Amino acid sequence: MLLKGKTVMVTGGSSGIGQAIAIGAAREGADVAFSYWGSDEGALKTKEAILETGQKALAISGDVALPESAISFVQETVEVLGKVDVFVSNAGICPFHSFLDMPAEIFERTMRVNLHGAYYMVQAAANQMVAQKTGGSIIAISSISALVGGEYQTHYTPTKAGLLSLMQSTAIALGKHNIRCNAILPGTIETEINRDDLADASKRSYMEARTPLGRLGKPEDLVGPAVFLASDMSQYVTGASLLVDGGMFVNLQ
């Protein structure tokens, strides 16, 4: 029960990594508010799993790309759950596309969701934490893509590098308020984002072979690292980045 008594907010909580972290936080004793966009079925699954742990759950539908969504998400969380102790910026998209003919609308939408949306959400959560005067933890789900390139991800990798940089800068800006800001960098995790890409058997085998632990990641693999950074066990950790990639990044051979 490492998060007992805490209130955790997660964006993109209806599937994948966000869903796993939201449920995992509840199992560690936290009340959880999560946002989602599109999948009511997935949101209901997350909410029911949280309630089964005996913790409170709040599901809020909203587009993180809109600045006003950040303010309303925080306000509703405080109205229902009373406070914000931990914020996890997870929501993101990655519509794979080649660089030379990248449609402006795909590039712009990816930037608005992954980077602009995260910025406004982090800002709103931080302002609430500052008002509470009790400190807090902010975690951004960046990616191994913040450190390496991707032929069909030229619109995506800059957003993940931006999230890593945002956590480094906000760690400095918010340290005086005892708010810690850290980034998690997942490797290849099996989620809806890359389901079609990994349907290619040869591509899947290649990615598995590049991973020293011999398998692709699961959303649940991110729960432990997120709980650690959310909990008081990491009270002197800020501005850090944690690779959760099965060793893929260091495997150059």
UniProtKB/TrEMBL annotation:
Pathway: Carbohydrate degradation; L-rhamnose degradation. One of its GO terms (molecular function) is oxidoreductase activity, acting on the CH-OH group of donors, NAD or NADP as acceptor. The keyword NADP applies. Pfam families: adh_short_C2. Coiled coil: none annotated. InterPro entries: NAD(P)-bd_dom_sf, SDR_fam. It comes from the Bacteria. One of its GO terms (biological process) is rhamnose catabolic process. It catalyses: L-rhamnofuranose + NADP(+) = L-rhamnono-1,4-lactone + NADPH + H(+); L-rhamnofuranose + NAD(+) = L-rhamnono-1,4-lactone + NADH + H(+). Keywords: NADP, Oxidoreductase, Rhamnose metabolism. Its EC number is 1.1.1.378. NCBIfam families: PRK07231.1. Belongs to the short-chain dehydrogenases/reductases (SDR) family. This is L-rhamnose 1-dehydrogenase (NAD(P)(+)). It comes from Hirschia baltica (strain ATCC 49814 / DSM 5838 / IFAM 1418).
